[in-house]
Design a protein that fits this description.
The complex is a heterodimer of chains A (about 280) and B (about 90). Chain A has about 280 residues and is of the alpha+beta class. Chain A is built from 11 helices and 16 strands. A 7-stranded antiparallel β-sheet of chain A has the order 11-14-15-9-8-7-16. Chain A has a 4-stranded parallel β-sheet with strand order 2-1-3-4, with helices on both faces. A 3-stranded antiparallel β-sheet of chain A has the order 10-12-13. In chain A, β5 and β6 form a beta hairpin. The longest helix of chain A has 19 residues. The N and C termini of chain A lie far apart (about 40 Å). Chain B is α+β, with helices and mostly antiparallel strands. Chain B has a single domain, classed as 2-Layer Sandwich (Alpha-Beta Plaits), CATH 3.30.70.20. Chain B is about 20% helix and about 20% strand. Chain B is built from 2 helices and 6 strands. Chain B has a two-stranded antiparallel ribbon with strand order 1-2. A two-stranded antiparallel sheet of chain B has the order 3-6. A two-stranded antiparallel sheet of chain B has the order 4-5. The chains are: A alpha+beta (about 280), B alpha+beta (about 90). At the A-B interface, β13 of A face α2 of B.
Chain lengths: ~280, ~90
Amino acid sequence: MKHAILSCTGLDKPEGSLAREVAIRAAEAAGGEIICPVLLNRAPARYRKTLSECALVIVDGCSTRCASRLAGALDAQVARKVSISDAAKTLRMPFEPTLRPGTGGMALAQAVADQLVRDLNAPAVAAEPPSVWEAPVEFLVVTHDKFEFRIPLVDYLFNENDCWVRVSGGAARVGISDYMQQRLTDISFFNPPQPGAVIEQFGEVGTLESAKAVFEIVSPVSGTVVAVNAAAADNSALINEDPYGAGWLVEIKPASLEQDAALLVDGAAYAEIVKRKAAEE
Amino acid sequence: MADVTFMGVPREKIPWFPTIDYAKCTFCMECDAFCPHHVFERRESDPRLLVANPNNCVVFCRACAKTCGPDALLFPDKPAIIALIKRVREEAK
């Protein structure tokens, strides 16, 4: 599949110039069409064909995430994304605070583009079919105005940050609640954690993005990430459609389940939290 | 909000809320527009954005910082807050 690269153009910020550099380098090295965010915003029909035929790659400049938000507003599925400000922190490559990229900025742009091209050219890894977990059958339904929030009654424990955990056979599956998927609206991107990452309880196990927000997935349990839901990463609509089942996010080998569970609540108690949150909105 | 708790701990005992680095803040107000809990406030008497309702902030939520282009919002160290919550829960037993 061809790539369509939508980048920040940020003429007024150093990150914008670097995002543009990354987009050009990635388009040259991996092949692909660059999408102008201004024209996309002004006349989306211009890119309708491109977006339907290509895998969308996002290059954000800073945390304002203009390119991501644009993709989210168009309901476009994002295949890959990078952010200049995040990459500068992760790679520990500071850049000059100037609109014209300096040597540090150019080195960062090259490093980000190289990594992106490697990712885009990497052969797809055949994911192991996930083990089959029975879907929850009994739900509590919290209603607020026209909204209905479903909460499974058994097997699921929740933290107050709207993430659930379900344990089966030594593995703990983590996801977000129906309430949170409705709060986020259409999720456009699931940025999963690295398998093998060691997570503290309430630590971050990836992020979810929608046009509305970037949501930090707060792990209900401590342990080691053993798997991520590749299907949800490829098609984040699954998380909206079935947050307690096919839209699970991460599988963790729990480190201290009993201790962690003391800080979690069951479905009935979580329903009370959802009622309170919905009333406060 | 006096009776609001987080993990069984009174909210006001948990110092989790953003701090604005005014040297970086560009007053774009993205965070204020985003936060549904009205943590931030603009006042006519003060040109700066203020963290007016810190206890409205959802403990462990850092979503406003993730919308902040100039990276001007700081949050406390999460493990330290978790340790504090555990300590308060133990004391309450």
